[in-house]
Amino acid sequence: MFRKMRRSAQELGREVCEEILSRGTSGVLAVLGDEGYPYAVPLSYVFADGKLYFHCARQGHKLDAVRACDKVSFCVVDKDDVVPEEYTTYFRSVIVFGRARVLEDAAEIRAALERLGRRYHPSDSPEGLAHAIDRELAAVAVIELTPEHITGKEARELMKRRKEGDKE
Length: 168
Ligand SMILES: Cc1cc2nc3c(=O)[nH]c(=O)nc-3n(C[C@H](O)[C@H](O)[C@H](O)COP(=O)(O)OP(=O)(O)OC[C@H]3O[C@@H](n4cnc5c(N)ncnc54)[C@H](O)[C@@H]3O)c2cc1C
Description:
alpha+beta, Pnp Oxidase, Chain A, 5 helices, seven-stranded antiparallel beta sheet, binds flavin-adenine dinucleotide, single chain, 40% strand, 7 strands
């Protein structure tokens, strides 16, 4: 059902895609918004155990959209270096298609917030993190994205360098 990449020579393997998702800190979540308009909204996230987690307010456009239709995609741009003399950019990105779920279970919500907290404040103590979560818990919703299809693509030049053994 999901499309094949036309320029398959530029396609990244699963492992590289997961590395990009792990090091990224934000991406753009695309949902089916109001009146058929796609709604693409930038969000921070954490990638853990093969899933992506987002936290947000308990109301709003994206939450309404996800509740109405769980099919979403999420794009992370890993690299975007402008190369003026070539009229191009050396890019690298990942797109995840999958199903989004607004977590309702308190233990699941806390576990996801702990993952987010550890990702964004790794030096905080467990007590500090627990305190921060307790403070925000009543105001926060968590969306879990279970990937169904992950693709990654990079500029030809980056692909060439990778094959030569230089990862950047
Ligand atoms: C890099 C980055 C990381 C972010 N991380 C998070 C995060 O982890 N959690 C979180 O909740 N929010 C985050 N935000 C803010 C996020 O993009 C949304 O503004 C926020 O989540 C509210 O979304 P909503 O659909 O509930 O907004 P609503 O206020 O319900 O949206 C109503 C309308 O406001 C407009 N709008 C909403 N957000 C934006 C926006 N960012 N830019 C332009 N127009 C907008 C749209 O037209 C939308 O239809 C981040 C933003 C950036 C740029």
